[in-house]
Amino acid sequence: MYDIIIVGAGPAGLTAAIYARRAEKSVLVIEKDTFGGQITHSPRVENYPGFVAISGNELADKLIEQAMEQGAEIELDTVTGLSGEPGAYKLTCGTHEYEARSVIIATGSRHRTLGIANEERYTGEGISYCAVCDGAFYRGKSVAVIGGGNSALQDAVMLSESCESVTVVQNLDFLTGEGRLQKILSERENVKVIYSSVVKRVLTDGVAFAGIVIADANTGAECELRVDGVFVAIGQMPENEPFESAVKLNDYGYVVAGEACVPEAPEGSERAPLGVFVAGDCRTKTVRQVTTATADGATAALAACRFLDSLGE
Ligand SMILES: Cc1cc2nc3c(=O)[nH]c(=O)nc-3n(C[C@H](O)[C@H](O)[C@H](O)COP(=O)(O)OP(=O)(O)OC[C@H]3O[C@@H](n4cnc5c(N)ncnc54)[C@H](O)[C@@H]3O)c2cc1C
User: Which of 61, 77, 130, 216 is catalytic?
Assistant: First the structure.
């Protein structure tokens, strides 16, 4: 029986582990895939305080090292369910279970990808999923934003302030994002929108990224869009299904919780299970970054410690 089990070894989960261990709680972090989480996909992080520039892998390594140095245990496993009661929770991982008095859900989210050949190869070298993270690398350059919803339009507005040109590529024949954002974009001379078009493949000059090939969704006619960078903003996929009977998920699958990192109760329950907390990109929030994930990790860990202390054992 651990004091706290943390699901997910991204920045939120690892920060929670550091704080919980410093409060002398026994901690297990369960990670199903990549120790360090999403940030490992970023070749260069320039907005995490304390580092002028650091690769995502190096930042992740430092977080893991710090959590382990503090005495956190880390397991490679996939959590598939949460059951039990306050002070005695069970986390199911396939055929076996782990037990903890308190649980922190820090499962993050994944960006939807285009699903084209070489997409992973050019991620960080022309293809980005985060304008806030990578927009500064394209100052004065030409970029495309893929998508037509609020995230895509917000990215396009932001990028149009520093990029030479922004081309929004939308698969439908209309934009689905807020009218206010559409109006701002329509007034920007360096922004244009291409409707009813889908991305077919990466365009290269030999090896280097040179843009994308897009196709008319109705006729199939293809054309080259030569740009320095492409920002994919076609949605994110949280992975909170294992917890849907314990905590409330919104329509997009995020755990509904505020800055206190305390989840709301699911439909049909009066309250969410005491001692279960949520941290990082997997919860409802407006800014999904390493800084906000680590902040959540600290908040959730300290809340879990208070809960454990209230049990008085
Ligand atoms: C390409 C890219 C570049 C980025 N660049 C920046 C940047 O420059 N600056 C910045 O601040 N942010 C950046 N971000 C965003 C940043 O990475 C995220 O905001 C941050 O990682 C969120 O941390 P998290 O711990 O909440 O979630 P995540 O990092 O998503 O970690 C969650 C972890 O939980 C695991 N998990 C999920 N479900 C389960 C389960 N059932 N069982 C066990 N484990 C599970 C996942 O495998 C994952 O490792 C970038 C993101 C990407 C994709």
Answer: 130
